Amino acid sequence: MGSLAKKVCVVTGAGRGIGRAIAARAASAGGVVVVADIDRAAADEMAEALGGDATGAHVDVASRESVDALVGGVVDRFGRIDVLVNNAGWDKAGPFVDSDPADWDRIIRINLYGVLHTSRAVLPLMAEQGHGSVVNIASDAGRVGSSGEAVYSATKGGIIAFTKTTARELARSGVRVNCVCPGPTDTDLLASFAGEKLRNALVKAIPLGRVGDPADVANAVVFLAGDEAGFVTGQTLSVSGGLTMV
Ligand code: NAD
């Protein structure tokens, strides 16, 4: 039996990249995984690839109505939510002084409001259940900053602070909330702003000598999500090959 045996796990942004790896790792740990993504086709395809009880679902985390519909659907089907992984995220890199407020809105709506919407919908359920575990995917950009990612960094720093506060508020209800901060990790998001030159520079700067694989992040998430981390809450874990040591 895996560490997430029979636990109902909702993973947002699980159609590709890090979220997809989290969904796969959670399923291999025995979880009943809800693969939620704004890209419904990718979510369904991933759920089908996982097989078993895995199910695909549409969600736009930036929309409270959409999040409420997702959570309502999961509760109707499974009766509970044991694990929530807030992974969906987006960025458009560039110098802050040239940035467009329309892009700020989009980054804040997806990255920060997304976590607020899902947390507002799921935390009361978990408190009522008397158990639950939330893992928020922030970023090392939220701990140490990242040139070209000012607003993104602000949302990720916000997620880290939000994690600590919800961890405090929900601890007595048996609900844990933790945060994982990936460093540069091999996904479409990284490819969207790191060409070969930057990628090589990153590999040079990372003490463990490579960029992250989505599975590296997934392993940390599944540890924090499961009962083996039963005495861990409000923590921020960087998975970055030692690039940051904070
Ligand atoms: P990605 O772009 O490869 O995948 C993101 C997924 O989220 C996609 O499937 C996309 O369809 C989905 N998504 C986007 N907007 C959504 C919305 N509004 N509602 C629901 N789903 C939505 O990105 P990734 O690299 O896998 O990033 C996953 C998380 O990890 C993000 O929160 C990101 O900020 C964080 N992160 C990534 C890196 C990295 O180097 N890749 C580093 C630090 C943090």
Short description:
This protein has about 250 residues and is α/β, with parallel strands linked by helices. It has a single domain, classed as 3-Layer(aba) Sandwich (Rossmann fold), CATH 3.40.50.720. It has helices at about 15-30, 40-50, 65-80, 100-130, 140-145, 150-170, 190-195, 195-205, 215-225; strands at about 10, 30-35, 55-60, 85, 130-135, 175-180, 235-240.
Write the layout of secondary structure elements.
Blueprint: E1 8-12, H1 17-28, E2 32-37, H2 40-50, E3 55-58, H3 64-78, E4 83-86, H4 101-129, E5 132-137, H5 141-144, H6 150-170, E6 175-182, H7 188-193, H8 196-205, H9 214-225, E7 236-239
Parallel strand pairs: 1-2, 1-4, 2-3, 4-5, 5-6, 6-7
The structure holds nicotinamide-adenine-dinucleotide (NAD).
Nicotinamide-adenine-dinucleotide (NAD) binds next to helix 1 and helix 7.
Written overview of the protein:
The chain has 246 residues and is of the alpha/beta class. It has one domain (8-185, 215-230): NAD(P)-binding Rossmann-like Domain (Rossmann fold, 3-Layer(aba) Sandwich). The protein has helices spanning 17-28, 40-50, 64-78, 101-129, 141-144, 150-170, 188-193, 196-205, 214-225; strands at 8-12, 32-37, 55-58, 83-86, 132-137, 175-182, 236-239. A seven-stranded parallel β-sheet has the order 3-2-1-4-5-6-7, with helices on both faces. β4, α4 and β5 form a beta-alpha-beta unit. It is globular and about 50 Å long. The structure holds nicotinamide-adenine-dinucleotide (NAD).
